[in-house]
Amino acid sequence: MAKLVLAAGYDRSPVAIAVCELLHRQGATPSAILLVSDFSVEHIRSVLRLRGWRPLIRYALRRSASLKQPDARSPLLDFIRRLGIQQTSIRRWARNARVPCLVVPHLNHQSAIDAVRKLENSVVLYTGGGLLRQPFLDACQGRAINAHVGSLPELRGMNALEWSLLLGVPPTITVHLIDAGIDTGPVLERIPLELPDGQTIEELREHASIAASHALVKWGQRALRGLPPGEVHKSVSRQCFVLAPALRRVLEKKLAGQRGSTGS
Amino acid sequence: MTSLLTYHAYLRAAYGWLVRSIGETKTGSRGHYTPAIGWARPYPETSGYLVGTLLGLGQALGDAVPKDLARGIVAWLLSIQRTDGAWSAGLHPPTAKENYPSIFNTGQILKGLCVYARTINDRSVLTSAAHAAEWLAGNVDANGAWSGHHYRKGFSPSYYTQVAWPMLEFSKLTGDERVRGAAERVLQRIATRRREDGSFESWGFDPHRPAFTHTIAYTLRGFLEAARLLDRWDVYGEPTVSALETLRRKAELSAGKLPGAFGPGWQAVSWYSCLTGNSQLALCLLLLEERDRDLRLVNAAAKLVDYVCSRQSLRHPLAGVRGGVPGSAPIWGRYMFLRYPNWAAKYHCDALIKLTRRLQQEGLDG
Question: Hey, of A56, A236, A239, A258, which one would you mutate to test binding to chain B, going by the most B CBs within 10 A of its CB?
């Protein structure tokens, strides 16, 4: 029987906590958690490179924001509350559930690779933590699963949900095996994403995160019995990146128009 | 930048800088401004291709003054044209070292004359343009090479696609098949320099140093325009796509702060950005997007332009800095060290006009 390993990008990741808790309740508790340290040099460097200083400060503040501060318009927080999850830290969750939690500088660090290899027959459920390189993928024999919030192969990369909405592509969760490319691994399932009207970009992202969490839980359980090979992409599409401010504004306007027409 | 108003503020500021670069002299635009030194002499080459930008600014801003400035520049350029039909290298008046007919400068001025003739419907400049085009075409050998009159002696760079382009523009205006044939030979010769990774050999100023994004974008733009004018996307457009995709990706990963130069194998020189290259590359991506309707190309273009805007001061007390675009960011970068080139402001205006038009089509307002 396969062993589940959850990869988390940061300690307060609500998606990582939700996936762990839901699997636990269904008797499929992860055997281990790999947690990327919030303060590793590599992690900070990559955030600086991608986002610069000011966004880094905002990003750090967001990531350290406690789930104890209720926000009425956070679908993700509502979801966590409805599940009755008290934990706001994956490390604390792991301690309570007696699941080993290894903090690593990054997922491609030797300690992470060794941990996955040691578990034998492991399947990694990826909830964040940066790109996975070949040595890590070899350690889990290519069985790392991602729930990408975008239709693949059309919308690889970042902000895929926003690009779906901007380009008029039906929002989709694509569950796929991770390979060395950017969202190019074999597709296991495409799940149409039903999104409520009249929401902001941030709210829609949270709705998508909830759907992605459910997809990962479903495939985590499925993985315990074995994984299909998946559907290989025949072509590689143009990669998506974070929306430029002007295009983000275009999307906000489009969504605000929908809010106006629904009266919300 | 999230509104048209914001983009227009940067556009007006760059236009204001260009107006000051022309000044009261009724000659061309002065080549660059250096804080603590001042303005350089007028630069015929860049004044030439500034003509098209001024005409575009007139339309974008709903202002008649840019057209008058363009008219003045054209008159000046015609007055300094050499008897052989070419224009000299360098600034004006040329030094002894610069006093030779320049292929590249002549090509850029020809570009401006063609746009002027077409936009203003003034065919009187075509006589001067014909003289220049004849000189260019007459010096192209059967293999598509110019044997002399280069910026760097003995080096015929790939960015000469920027000379083939105006030759094709001229041919389209006049039906001159000889000029068209010469331009095609130039393009075909440069096309053979394409490497497997999509880059082109000799697309920099110096064959032994990394190429600035300025000349990289020159090379790609020349091909894109040739593809349009000859309706041969397969021959001249398609070969640029790989390089454009590589540069698009690098622009996105650097959040618009594109490395200023690239060596063989796309080895980046990233401690500075060549800002005019940013603007030029944004234009190339937007041109590609006209054909390959994909907002992901506009996304990268917007980030490149936004970065240039972030380096443009709107309120500096020095008139030669206010609204201008430095050659490099930081300003002590290798491209146009410590200077504000007029072509940086020109390409910034071109990119802002094209980008805002495209964003307006998508519903950006404000």
Answer: A239
ipTM, two decimals: 0.94
- pLDDT tens for each residue of B227-257: 999 999 999 999 999 999 999 999 999 999 9
Question: Residue A7: helix, strand or coil by DSSP?
Answer: strand
AA identity, residue B51? V
Structure tokens at A102: 């290894």
- Using DSSP's 3-state secondary structure scheme, residue A132 falls into coil
B299–A241 CB contact, under 8 Å: yes
Helix axes A245-262, A201-223, angle to 10 degrees: 90
Task: Enter the pTM of the model.
Answer: 0.94
Comparing alpha-carbon positions, the chain A residue that sits nearest to B366 is: A249
Interchain pair B359, A253: CB under 8 A: no
What are the contacts of A87-91 at 24+ separation with CB within 8 A? A87/A17, A87/A21, A88/A12, A88/A17, A89/A11, A89/A12, A89/A17, A90/A8, A90/A11, A90/A12, A90/A13, A90/A16, A90/A17, A90/A20, A90/A33, A90/A35, A91/A11, A91/A35
SS3 state of residue B242: helix
| Interchain contact, A241 vs B296, CB within 8 Å | yes
Secondary structure (3-state) at A236:
coil
Q: Do B295 and A247 touch (CB under 8 A)?
A: yes
pLDDT in tens, A115-161: 999 998 899 999 999 999 999 999 999 999 999 999 999 999 999 99
Q: Which residue has the tokens 């990289």?
A: B216
Q: Which chain A residues contact residue B300 at CB under 8 A? A: 241, 244
CB B300 within 8 A of CB B248: yes
User: Which residue's entry shows tokens 């992690």?
Assistant: A43
Residue of B nearest to A254 (CA): B363
Cα B3 from Cα A252, distance rounded (Å): 12
Under DSSP, is residue B201 helix (H, G, I), strand (E, B) or coil?
A: coil
Q: Between chains, do B2 and A245 touch, taking CB under 8 Å as contact? A: yes
